[in-house]
């Protein structure tokens, strides 16, 4: 489904309750966590779903309405005030115009990063099929996220250990970032995942760019191939589920990497198709 196919109606207003940076000072990217209170008590959402944010574009570009999706980064909060709260993780983005070559600020991301507590935001949704937690607590979970693709896994892992409880299978989170300063929720400022390090079944593996100042690609090959035997063994286990979240290019990067690991693109295509058919491979790409 293309972004333009997502409905812009109905729309709901949400109030910014809080906004704070979750990247360390000095990081190349600014990423903020926003908590919004939706002015609609029956706005129900599930783990892994997304909400749309509507923003009027700059007048010099015709003032067109920009609609962008952001994955909810936390489990549904209790409706203490009768209104649901949602948490979004937003990276301030710029883009290069294909025609002019000029650099422009991303409309929606900059709009959200500039919001203050009390400001109103127009949202739509929720959208998307959420990641389903297997009923079998002995299931192994391999979670792969790139950049802000960490957002749904933050909610997912919190749900597993806080709400489901007594999880017996392995839970391995592989998370990539350009540098250690950009590891959302895994930096000095907001090490949310540290609270689960004492869980015997949980492990977080960091994949960083080897030379972040040179914009080298994130070292997926090193992070995954260094554990290739274990990961391939997990994929052979019918109790293993794989969840992938991030920007669309992550799909091709992972396909290439896993093709090398299993020996050929054809073998990996068959393996991945079997995992998808069995409901053991799910992707949330945007």
Name the strands of the widest sheet in spatial order. 4-3-8-1-2-5
State the separation between the terminal residues, measured CA to CA: 10 Å
CATH superfamily of the largest domain: Nucleotide-binding domain of ferredoxin-NADP reductase (FNR) module
Largest sheet: 6 strands, antiparallel
The overall pLDDT, averaged over residues, is 76
Helix content: 10-25%
Annotated CATH architecture of the largest domain: 3-Layer(aba) Sandwich
Q: Helical segment tally?
A: 6
> How many extended strands?
13
Strand-residue fraction? 25-35%
Q: Please indicate the count of domains.
A: 2
What CATH calls the topology of the largest domain is Rossmann fold
Find the structural class using helix and strand composition: alpha/beta
Q: Name the poorly predicted regions.
A: 178-191, 208-218
Topology as H/E string? EEEEEEEHEEHEEHHEHHE
Which CATH C-level class of the largest domain is it? Alpha Beta
Round the Cα radius of gyration to an integer and report it: 19 Å
